[in-house]
Amino acid sequence: MKGLLLAALVAYIGWWLWQGPKHKPRPMPPPRPSEESAALAVLGLANGADEDDIRAAHRRLLQAVHPDHGGSAELTRRVNDARDLLLRRRTPD
């Protein structure tokens, strides 16, 4: 009985290794210009803002729109998404 269970386990592990991961991570596409300009508008920045400007604008806005300070979760999400999109654009792969 133990031999049968061991053989089934080895067969399952072999099958699992042969199949490989089901979901391979896909690289993030570069942001479209309209998304980038919208993110800049959310943060109140001009085109060509550097990483320090993005982080400073994010910090300043987050203090105003955070739910703990009378803002809303939706506004916080928009500010965070804008920061993430703009910083991802500047991160070298």
Shape: elongated
The Cα radius of gyration reads: 23 Å
DSSP strand content: under 5%
Query: Into which percent range does the helicity of residues fall?
Result: 55-70%
- Indicate the low-confidence ranges by residue numbers: none
What structural class do the secondary elements suggest? mainly alpha
Q: In sequence order, what are the helices and strands, one letter per element?
A: HHHH
In round numbers, the mean pLDDT is 82
Beta-strand segment tally: 0
Q: Span from first to last CA?
A: 52 Å
Number of helices: 4
> Strand count, sense and closure of the main sheet?
none
Can you give a write-up of this model?
The chain has 93 residues and is mainly alpha-helical. The chain has helices spanning 2-19, 33-43, 51-65, 73-90. Helix 2 (33-43) crosses helix 4 and helix 3 (51-65) packs antiparallel against helix 4. The longest helix is centred in the first third of the chain and has 18 residues, at 2-19. The radius of gyration is 23 Å and the shape is elongated. 13% of the residues are buried.
